Amino acid sequence: MNIAFDLDGTLITAKERQSSLLLATAKAHGITFDVNLAWEMKRAGANNLVVLNKFGVDEFIAAKIDTAWRCQIESAYWLSIDRVYSDVVDFLQDLKACGAVLHLITARKNKYLLHQQLCRLGLFGVFSSITCVAPFGAVAEKARVLSEINPVCFIGDSETDFNSAVLAEVSFHGVSTGQRSKEYLKSLGVVDVVESLNSLFPVLTKILKH
Q1: Are 32 and 23 contacting, i.e. CB atoms less than 8 angstroms apart?
Q2: pTM over 0.85
Q3: What is the C-alpha radius of gyration for the chain, rounded to an integer number of angstroms?
Q4: Model confidence pLDDT, tens digit, residues 30-73
């Protein structure tokens, strides 16, 4: 039985790379801000431009910072900051032991660096398939892959994941560990939002038994 997962914020950390890079690119323009507050804004639905605007950054400078951020967010250096959440490896292995076939669907620009990172984090061999879709048009592309895999559910941390699942008519489980908060996901209509993957284990094993 197939189960599909998003990567960033769902299985691996999201805050450290995103926040540290945003602060670094802002500092290059002589701007600093409260990183934790910025991350909470993003968790509540804001993008980089909105966050910078809230801190009073000029729109032109904010656009330059955001462009620099987007150019570097998937560089080897910044990807090296990512870590697997502590409960993830055991969770995935336990699911496989129960008969689940695991699939990874993530939006990244560089497939090679993605595979390199998954190997470094010990996740590459866990999945039966690893699909890297372009960030632009990620909803439609993830939905297409979901339709092909036909999983019992898709597990992710953002509105992109949720909208992809809705488009593909696949059940969605949201986790509030990453890009978006539980409150924000709920406001979008996500019914099932948990604070850790382990919380989903009883639900998923019940599905696998039927």
Answers
A1: yes
A2: yes
A3: 17
A4: 999 999 999 999 999 999 999 999 999 999 999 999 999 999 99
